[in-house]
Design a protein that fits this description.
Length: 275
Amino acid sequence: MILGHSEKIKIFKDLADKDGLSHAYLFYGPEQVGKNHFAKALSAYLEHGEFEESKRLLSETLTVLPGEDKDSIGIDEVRVAKTFLYRKPVNSEKRLVIIDNSDLLTSQAQNAILKITEEPPKTGIIILITKNPDTLLPTLRSRVQQVYFSRLKSDDLKNFLKKERGLADDEIERIVKLSFGRPGRMFDLIDTDKYKDLLKIFNNLKKDSKVKRSTIEEISKEGDYRELLDYLIAVLSEKPLENYKLLAKIMDAKQKMGDYSTNKRLQLESALWNI
């Protein structure tokens, strides 16, 4: 299902129904807010009449992935996309090419897409997806319709967790705080062991010094502690007056984590020892 973006869904359904869709779009905004899901749902609507990410085969949609090096999307991938795009659709009025992580497009690949947008096929649509549109050439950005996807409201996430997952109110509050308005992040937390692992760490940090020291040592091996610190901030923020000193310490530690000259282990131990 598509969480949020109800106004965009209404607009794009209306455009599709009236054959008013543009030949090229740029979906941009924070990571994990649903840009890719929205593009695939649009594909499903054009092919099957349902604006949901479909489990059925979408024969008129091509998703472009990075090449063999996995670090870039080059001219070869764009050539394949172009061939696909210019073929006449059979099961839909349109053919869609979705290029996620379009910031990985090489300059040569971007120029090739630019040429497609200058002489677009009547039945073809390109959707570029990125968190940062500035990574694309200005000339390419000028040829596509830009659509911004914002973070979701907390209430949208809360209502979903309440109705679809039946979670307790306090658990919902913590998960929503940790999700930062990003449904993709929310699903990462509830559909994997990530949330349970964070809860276990938090409980261990409240035990005796031996368990606490062992827990901090384990955490320090991970290298990136920001997700844990985000979780602790979410939990401690439930009682801000009671925990304000500890909150300040953890927030300070999180800020310093980005400084390469900082001893992250010492920062972590200092922040977590008094929980």
